Predict the structure.
Amino acid sequence: MNAYFLVEGKRTERKVYPKWLSLLIPDLKFVNFFEDVVSNNYKIFSGDGFPHLLHRHLKASIEDVNDSGNYNYFIICLDADDCTAEERVLEVNEFIVENNLTLNDDIEFRIIVQQKCIESWLLGNRNVFKSNPSNPDLVKAIQFYNVSTEDPELMDKPASFAGSTSDFHYNYLKAVLRERHISYTKKNPRDVTEKHYLEELIARTQDTGHLKTFNNFLELCAEMRSKID
């Protein structure tokens, strides 16, 4: 069983997904080069952001997967940003139809939407959340939306925030982690890739039903794990 991942981000997803996949599907091994995919391997490519993922990379990725004849899954991972997950899936599928892109029949195609972004998932860790932080910006963010009790995937942004909703989620996560003296950047996500962090996100989905799109990723991993040779 081999898988091809096309992820939106240039940095964070290319570091987080390999670490999480090594924990969730330990027998699925990352390879550096396309031609090294043989059995129970995966390759991960960056789509250089959205919509570049669609307009610059999707066609070539589908052609590579079809021509290889060696992949069982073609998986796109991308942010919903200010759309809903359903709208983002529809946008990708419409692009595929409008551009006459077709996968071989024996390849499973899946779209994993990060609602709103991967930092929204990471905000689901209740263990790192401090209910009485010292940072006044974090206090305001919690007053706006408490991610320890409300679903982070459903959080919008304050009307006064100048950036995107995903920017707000990123800033919120950085502030939460900074209270615990944990550094987080898109280039170096560090602790969030670790087993203890992932386990708490899984517990959040099981305890509360929150992080629905993260749970879609977990379900896909369980399905792929069952198909390991």
Q: What stands out?
A: The CA atoms of residues 47 and 57 lie 6 Å apart. Strands lie at 3-7, 29-30, 41-46, 73-79, 108-114.
